[in-house]
Design brief:
The protein is mainly beta. The chain contains eight helices and 37 strands. The radius of gyration is 27 Å and the shape is globular. The strands form seven sheets. It has a 22-stranded antiparallel barrel.
Length: about 800
């Protein structure tokens, strides 16, 4: 908090002495020319545009936008990521109907997975948004979905000034809604399948005088899991304030809060699915059964060890758990078929202040300061770590009898703050931009074990933050300092028909790891850094006619290392880190793309082709079941070559009816084998398809809006995906269909502004595997790393604006 106070005070002091202050940081940079005026309305923050998707006219790179009205067509509470899954090149997976359950949510662009992309909210970095995020937070926690005004997706090359050191691939930028000009109260409620309750309320102050306005909002979600026993809940609060200073500009600030607590779904393998089905899940409703499975497993382990030590004989063997035996209960084949329970709890505060100073008519300086505080725990109740006598309960009392189960957590805390600044000078047809970003992040991560009892009911709840551990396996403190700058220039020629932009960015990221005292950690400590001061980007846009334009761009990106016990160079053993530190190189990508956009009346289309050279790929091999928590094996395994094409079409057939469709083709192949230190082939991956990279995706959507009536149907096809590096295991392709229908009352009377909507996800009740890689990927064979997709779900929502 001291860092936050100093940071925001510094930014505020600058604002006071600056000659002028203007609006919050804008979406565009020099590598991202302003969109054509005909599309500007469709991309405004209030989401007023009528198009389903804005296809990026005026951009020198592949970029599309969806606005608030598009997100509003989904079930309230849905992640903004779910709204962009229809865009070309977007591979989105989830195991819940809202796309908000973080353990299962995955998004990738053109073969780059989530931790190789860049994400921001109003310019503020969200890190890589992966589960157990070490340098940010997920968008589902960063802002209430109703307050998202627009989402921009750059599939191949994000804007030059994007605050990210992970965007080897594209970027996804979220923009929050503006406060309303008039006082207003809006609210809504949703009820649906699995006892889903969702509420939202927002109060806008309107203009309080002198251009000062703001809003406060609150969102709540509670839903039972669609299989197994458990709930998922979230409380959120958002506040935003804007001070309009007239010709001098404006000042804005926001503060967002989230408290999310969710019980997990069971990770599956094909073996488990064959024996127990897609509905197999944790057995949180039957604690005695979990105890029995744990005791049986530990008897099996002890029996096998005794036989090994006694030439196969069990004479004289005494089981650690008498009267239980070594045979699992009927229907269970392994100890990993079903654990008792697992969960994730996260509490976040995210705030920022933005000033945009017009120093002269030609010179502007935008400055944003931000701070993020996070506390989190991810838990498993596991038979791999039985509880000893003397461990403590949550209330501090002693446990007097051993238990076959233990409560294992991975605990997180993030304290990060930073500042972004962009100086732009515009004269005539030329615009020059200089920018910088600094962030300091202290991340602590620990693996702890807490006591469970051998009793009729459990003594701990995975939805609580745990207290009184009996063992700390490791407790690491990781610091990351990020320094990034960018330089860009945009030149507009031939009366604006030709736009050329070029520039570069550079960064230095310093990563350090130490282990706190009283741990027996096998994990690495030390220091490593990534530096590349020149990562070029160039683009060109040429307008053939008022309705047709060609574009092309080229970009190089480097991904910095992350500081963590569970991912990156510190997640391996000390010996492994010492062996690779001197030769490790950060991942690097080179992306080239080019395409055509066309617009004629109500018809819009875009087509793009691309090639990506991805080198210095770092690969962490999973070792054993995820619940065991073994350190990964990290290797630099060479390159991936990717090429593909994307097509998007948006057609307003007549005023009420709109059609959108997209097709993506992606061919991502490994270009090298995985080699040992002496050059021997460990895994023959050369020529194999990249994991979790579908070759074909087809998406379509029909929207009808007429006189208050709204109907929407969307379909999403994805071809098969591999989840082993040798391509011997894959999940098949699937088609998912969602639909909604609603009516909004207009005119006078009590019903004015009331809207009612019904929605259904997975309309055809498709049985399928959604998320792959939840526990990482292995070279070959089956792996407990799959999550089942949600069956058909129904919801009804009532909304009202006053």
């Amino acid at each position: 908090m001291n860092r936050l106070s100093s940071l925001l005070a510094g930014v505020a002091a600058f604002a006071i002495i600056a000659p002028a202050i203007t609006a919050p940081v804008a979406a565009q940079t020099l590598a991202d020319p302003a969109p054509a005026s005909t599309d500007a309305t469709a991309a405004t923050d209030d989401g007023a545009g009528g198009d389903i998707v804005v296809l990026g006219f005026g951009q020198s790179r592949q970029v599309q936008s969806v606005n608030a009205s598009d997100l509003a067509r989904l079930t309230p509470g849905s992640s903004p990521l779910k709204a962009i899954e229809k865009l070309p090149g977007v591979n989105f997976q989830a195991a819940d109907p809202f796309g908000a359950y973080e353990w299962a949510v995955r998004i990738s662009l053109r073969g780059f997975n989530q931790n190789q992309l860049g994400f921001t909210l109003d310019g503020v970095p969200l890190g890589d948004m992966s589960y157990g995020n070490v340098n940010g937070l997920h968008i589902s926690r960063a802002i209430i979905s109703e307050n998202v005004a627009r989402t921009d997706v750059a599939q191949g090359a994000g804007a030059l000034g994007t605050a990210s050191t992970s965007n080897l691939g594209g970027t996804i930028e979220f923009f929050s809604d503006k406060p309303r000009d008039t006082a207003n109260v809006t609210g809504g409620g949703t009820y649906g399948s699995n006892n889903t309750y969702r509420g939202f309320a927002r109060i806008d102050s309107g203009d309080l005088g002198g251009g000062l306005k703001g809003y406060l909002s609150y969102g709540y979600l509670s839903t039972d899991k669609w299989k197994g026993d458990g709930v998922q809940r979230q409380h959120q609060a958002n506040g935003k304030i804007v001070k309009d200073l007239g010709s001098l500009g404006s000042l804005s600030a926001f503060l967002n809060f989230s408290d999310r607590r969710e019980q997990d779904y069971q990770d599956l393998s094909y073996d488990i699915i064959r024996r127990r089905g897609l509905r197999n899940d944790n057995i949180a409703g039957d604690y005695p059964l979990a105890l029995q499975i744990g005791k049986t497993y530990q008897n099996q382990v002890a029996s096998a060890a005794y036989a090994t030590a006694n030439n196969g004989s069990l004479v004289g063997f005494v089981a650690p758990w008498a009267g239980v035996g070594t045979t699992f209960p009927a229907g269970f084949g392994t100890v990993d078929d079903a654990y008792f329970d697992a969960g994730g709890v996260r509490r976040d505060y995210l705030g920022g202040v933005t000033f945009d100073a017009h120093l002269t008519p030609e010179l502007t300086l935008v400055t944003t300061g931000y701070y993020h505080d996070n506390k989190g725990q991810g838990s498993w109740i596991t038979p791999y770590s039985p509880t000893p006598i003397g461990a403590l309960n949550q209330d501090g009392s002693a446990i007097t009898a051993r238990s076959p189960l233990g409560f294992r957590t991975t605990e997180y805390a993030i304290h990060r703050g930073g500042a972004l600044s962009t100086l732009a000078y515009e004269t005539g047809s030329n615009t020059l931009e200089l920018g910088s970003w600094y962030e300091t992040n202290t991340f602590t991560q620990a693996r702890r074990f807490y006591g469970m009892t051998d009793s009729a009911t459990p003594n701990r709840d995975v939805l609580d933050f745990q207290k009184n551990s009996y063992l700390t396996q490791w407790d690491g403190k990781y610091t990351t300092d990020t320094y990034q700058y960018h330089v860009g220039d945009t030149l507009r020629l031939a009366d604006g028909r030709l736009v050329v932009n070029a520039g570069w960015k550079g960064f230095y990221v310093d990563n350090r790891a130490i282990m706190l005292p009283a741990t027996t950690s096998p994990l690495a400590v030390g220091r490593i850094s990534a530096k590349d001061w020149f990562q070029p980007q160039a683009g060109i846009l040429f307008k053939l006619t008022p309705g047709a334009e060609l574009f092309a761009d080229y970009k190089e990106n480097v991904r910095a290392y992350v500081s963590s016990a569970t991912t990156g160079p510190f997640s391996t053993t000390q010996a492994g880190f010492n062996a690779i530190r001197g030769q490790l190189k950060p991942e690097r990508s080179k992306t080239a793309e080019g395409g055509l956009r066309f617009r004629q009346g109500p018809f819009q289309a875009s087509a793009v082709g691309y090639y990506i050279d991805f080198s210095n790929r770092l690969l962490g091999f999973a070792n054993g079941a995820g619940i065991i928590g073994n350190p990964a094996t990290l290797n630099n395994v060479g390159s991936v070559h990717t090429y593909g094409a994307e097509v998007a079409v948006n057609y307003r057939v007549f005023t009420p009816l709109s059609l959108f469709a997209s097709y993506s083709y992606n061919k991502s192949k490994y270009a090298d084998d995985v080699l040992s230190a002496n050059g021997a082939v460990l895994v023959a991956t050369d020529g194999k398809m990249a994991v979790d990279s579908p070759e074909h995706m087809i998406k379509g959507e029909i929207v009808l809006e007429q006189s208050g009536f709204t109907a929407r149907v969307g379909a999403d096809y994805m071809s098969k995906r591999y989840f082993t590096y040798l391509n011997d295991q894959s999940v098949p392709g699937r088609v998912l269909v969602d639909a909604s229908i609603g009516y909004r009352f207009e005119g006078d009377g009590a019903l004015h502004g009331v809207a009612i909507e019904g929605s259904v996800t997975n309309l055809t009740d498709k049985k399928y595997v959604s998320t792959i890689g939840s526990n990482g990927f292995t070279a070959s064979g089956d792996n407990q790393t799959l999550l089942a997709g949600t069956p058909r779900q129904f919801f009804v929502s009532l909304k009202k604006g006053f």
